[in-house]
Amino acid sequence: MKKEKVEGKVEGKVEGKEVISVAKPKLHQTYLVESAWEVCNQVGGIYTVIRSKIPTMIEKWGDNYCLLGPLLGKEINAEFEDIQKADNIFFKAVVALRKKGYKVKYGRWLVMGRPQVILLDPHDAFYRLNEIKDELSKNFGIPKREHDDLYNQVLGFADVATELFKQLIKKNTVKTPIVAQFHEWMSVLPILNLNKLKHPLRTVFTTHATLLGRYLAMNDTEFYHQMDKYDWQKEADHYNISSMVQIERKAAELSTVFTTVSEITAMECRHLVGRNPDILLPNGLNINRFLAYHKVQNLHQKFKEEIHEFVMGHFFQSYSFNLDKVMYFFTSGRFEYLNKGYDITLEALKLLNKKLKKAGSDMTVVMFIITKRPVWSINPEVLHSRGVMGEIRKNCEEITKQIGKKLFSVAASSHNDHRIPDLNQMVDDYWKLRFRRTIQSWKGDKWPIIVTHNLVDDAKDEVLSYLRQNNMINSPDDKVKVVYHPDFINPTNPLFGIEYSDFVRGCHLGIFPSYYEPWGYTPLESIALGVPTITSDLSGFGAHVVENIKNHEDRGVYILQRLKKTDKEAIEDLAQTMFDFVGRSRRDRMVLRNKSEDLSEEYDWSKLTLHYEKSFRMALGNLISKS
């Protein structure tokens, strides 16, 4: 077997053998394992955190960096490439596990940076689930939880992951320091297991949102004002999440370094988890994927035209408005009606409508609400209208070709008459009739519907209920129109046919006034795409902007104050911010788009991974060189 090379200085000889003083490695020469439930497994925002950070991590750690996640679903083969053989401790540990009978995948994640990944099958430990639960109860006082598939998978994954870390430590014959970072409660159990076994692994636990905090925020409108008054055990029992909450609390206690993503979640940690975070790790993006530099305005114009086509298809069969005097606002994200601020957004839109009418504004605002909901299908009326729009376009193109040929012939043959002839006479009767019939079959008196899909539970949907109860149903007199699109936007979407990022580029303003948002990627993505955004001081991103970015409104980020204001005050502020934005000149908006994109560069991982490195240095302490 090939011996690993030991770097160091020969200090002398004892009994004829060289004594080597091994120099402490620098940070990026250590081994780094990053473990998360969302490695190669998209569930929520942590997937974006992990995936977008990879290129920067690879640039600094190279193959000393490895990701660890659960082996779930057959789709993994589409984004995973096996590595058959490698000369490093990760592969050696994988081989050792396979010899013990574990199903382990080791290879490259086929994303930018192509990092090493180890995927472990939670089911490999299912044969001893009861034993695992007994051990957690006996050693850490964590109550047993039955009949929960996700919880069982988490326990199974943790059990196999613990064995992997034991093998990594065993195969690390030159004793290069290893630091392991664990994201959220679903990956964190190895900290408990290894601490019990007194292994020398240095650990960083990063919580992106406390589990109990998320439940409380969804159910208590006074969450932020009485955070210090909650009895965490009582509340965890009430929501039947005691086992998970206790895992989270114990991992925070036993981790070498405890971290979270924002000052907002740090407040939760202090009161609900029982440990103040050692350092904050703000989330970033790989901004190079988004930057368009001087093309920002061109791309906005290009994709605004795509949205225009949808809007014409959706609204113009009933009535029309001036597309040169229209603004596209949008909000998107998980459907959490209160947490994501959909409630106050709708209230503010209602107020904005009144303000624009009162001011006699000639502007129209079309608000898109993009989220994922259970649906039966696209509404046939919407799909039909889109189809007829295609037919109208085809007719117009054929008529244009016909006129072009005949007009050229007339112009070339004319000697004294330089006037443009009657173009109507250049169109064949066939195309005149087809054009007229298509328009007549499309136009109608029915107002445009407010939702593009047939929802599974239409009557109980909170967005639809609000719109109907408040008569926000796309009246011709309304200055604010609403399009509720309960599905993702992507190139296969028959209503838009473009990427979500392209849709965002075509809009004018993103609106994300969240009540509970540990970080908030949607407003950050918005400015990265050159679109100004509204977020709140209760989002991690918003709080970070307030603390770190001067004159942020002049750079395209508006922060709605919700922490110290009532909902009524926040609604009025939000409506006024939107009203003022509508009043901006086209030139002002162009400048703001460029400034928004420039600001997003402050949130590139090339800058923000410095916080991660600081946490790793804290964890490794005197094991690494200070240089």
Total strand count, please?
19
Radius of gyration from CA coordinates: 29 Å
Order of strands in the sheet with most strands: 5-6-7-4-3-8-9-10-11
Write down the overall mean pLDDT. Answer: 91
Under CATH, the topology of the largest domain is which?
Answer: Rossmann fold
CATH class of the largest domain: Alpha Beta
Structural class: alpha/beta
Q: From the 3D coordinates, which CATH architecture of the largest domain would you assign? A: 3-Layer(aba) Sandwich
Strand content: 5-15%
Cα(first) to Cα(last) distance is: 33 Å
Q: Total helix count?
A: 20
Number of domains: 2
Shape assignment: elongated
Uncertain stretches of 5 or more adjacent residues: 1-21
Question: What is the secondary structure topology, with strand pairs?
Answer:
Elements: E1 9-14, E2 17-21, E3 31-35, H1 45-61, E4 65-70, E5 80-82, H2 89-99, E6 104-109, E7 116-120, H3 129-140, H4 149-171, E8 178-183, H5 189-197, E9 202-207, H6 211-219, H7 232-238, H8 242-254, E10 257-260, H9 263-273, E11 279-280, H10 296-315, E12 326-332, H11 342-358, E13 364-370, E14 375-378, H12 380-413, H13 429-442, E15 453-455, H14 462-469, E16 480-485, H15 500-506, E17 509-512, H16 521-528, E18 533-536, H17 540-548, E19 557-560, H18 567-582, H19 586-600, H20 605-620
Parallel strand pairs: 3-4, 3-8, 4-7, 8-9, 9-10, 10-11, 12-13, 12-17, 13-16, 17-18, 18-19
Antiparallel strand pairs: 1-2, 5-6, 6-7, 14-15
Helix pairs in contact: 2-4, 4-5, 5-8, 10-12, 10-15, 11-18, 12-13, 16-19
